[in-house]
C-alpha cells in the first residue's frame, strides 16, 4: 500500500501514456504527481514531473526524445531566486538512475548503511536530499533510461549526432535550452552535476551552454570525474596517480604495514600523494634506464604504500596496473578480489592466480538493487507507465572520443564568468576514476592558478558512488548544499 501522504494529486496531460501494440514512448509527454518528504528534519511538499522532450535537428524535426524527471519544491515565493540543479550520470551510456535514486533526489534505494542490497527491493525517503535548497532535473541522454533516438530516414539513425564527446555536449546544450524555456527557469541560478564520464560532460557543457546557448552557470559539480586526458593516455603520470588509491584500498582491508595501518586514513594519504608526485613520476619517466638501486628502492616504497609484494612490483617495472591490484591485493588474505568502482566490495574468482579479475563485484551488487528500484519507482510511485525498457546502460558505442577539449572548456567558461565555481567529490576507494586523479584534473584545469580559490575538493571513505554509504550520503549532500549556498550571487555583480 502506498503511504497516504505521498500521492496527494495526480495530473496527467492530455497526451498521457498508455500501453499499445508498438513498444515506444510519445516523443513529447509529461506526468505530474505531488508528494511530501522530510528533509533535514523539515517537512516539505514537492512536485515531480516525469516525461520526454524532443531533440530537434536543424529543420525542426525530432531526431531523439530524452526522458527526464524534474522535482520542484512547492510553495516557493520567488522561483527566480531558487537554484536549478541539472544532473547527469556518465558511462558514456549510463542512465541517470544512480544519482537520482541514491544521492540527491527525495527518494533513495532500500540498502544497508554501507550500500549493500536488501530485499525486498524498493525505495525509501532520503532525509539528506538537496531538494530543500534547489530544484533538480535528472536527464537521460540518448538511448539511456527511457530516452531513444528516432530514425531520420527509414530505420537509420545518424549516430554521429549523439554518440561522441562533442556531439553529446552539443545536443544536450540545445535540449537544456528548451527545457529551461519550457519550465520558466531562465532567471534561476543554475548548477550542473555529472558523475564519472558525466564529469567530462559537464566540463564541456559549461562552455557550450555559455557560448552557444547564452546560459551562464553558478556552479559545476564533478562526482568521481573521469578525465580521459589521463585515463586513456597512460604513461608515468597516469600510472603514478594510482598509488594513493592503492594506499587507501589497502588501508581499508588492513593490508598495509603496521606503521601505516595504525594511523588514520587521512594521515597517511598525504604521504602517499607526495611520494607519487615527487618520486614515483620521475622514476617511471626514466623507464628502462632507471638504475637498479633506485628501481628497488622505489619498489620497496611502493610496496610500503600499496600492500603488494616488492618482488611483484619490480617484475612489472614499477608500473602496476589497477587490474593486477584488484586481483592480487588480498590473494594471501582470504583469496578475495576487490571491486573496481568501490574496492570495499569483495569478489571470488575461479582461481587465485592471475592478473585480472573475473568480474566486478560492486557492479553486480548495485544492479541487484538499482534495477528493480528504478522500474518500481518510476512506474508505481511517479505513475509513468510504459512497456519500454529502462536502459541502465544503453547502446551508445562506438563512442567518438576525439578532440576532447573539455578540460580547457571549463577553464574558458570560468574565465569568462566570474560567478562560476567548481566542486569535485570523490571516494577514496574508487579504483576506476581515482580520487587523486580527480585532484590532478582539478589542478590542471587552470594552469595559471589564478582561479584556484574557485575550486574545492571533498573526499569520502567509500567508492565511486560514495553516496551509497549512509554517512557519506549525508556528508556529500551537505557539501553540495553548502557549495550552492556559498556560490549564489546574493546581489554581487559578475565582475573581477
CATH class of the largest domain: Alpha Beta
The span between the termini is 56 Å
Query: Would you identify the regions where 5 or more consecutive residues have pLDDT less than 50?
Result: 1-20
Please outline the major beta sheet: 11 strands, mixed
How many β-strand stretches?
A: 15
* CATH superfamily annotation of the largest domain: Alpha/Beta hydrolase fold, catalytic domain
**CATH topology annotation of the largest domain:** Rossmann fold
**Individual helix count:** 15
What is the name of the CATH architecture of the largest domain?
3-Layer(aba) Sandwich
Radius of gyration: 23 Å
Strand content: 15-25%
* Residues in helix, %: 25-40%
Structural class: alpha/beta
Average pLDDT reading = 94
Total domains: 2
Order of helices and strands: EEEEEHEEEEHEHEHHHHHHHHEEHHEHEH
**What coarse outline follows from CA principal-axis ratios?**
globular
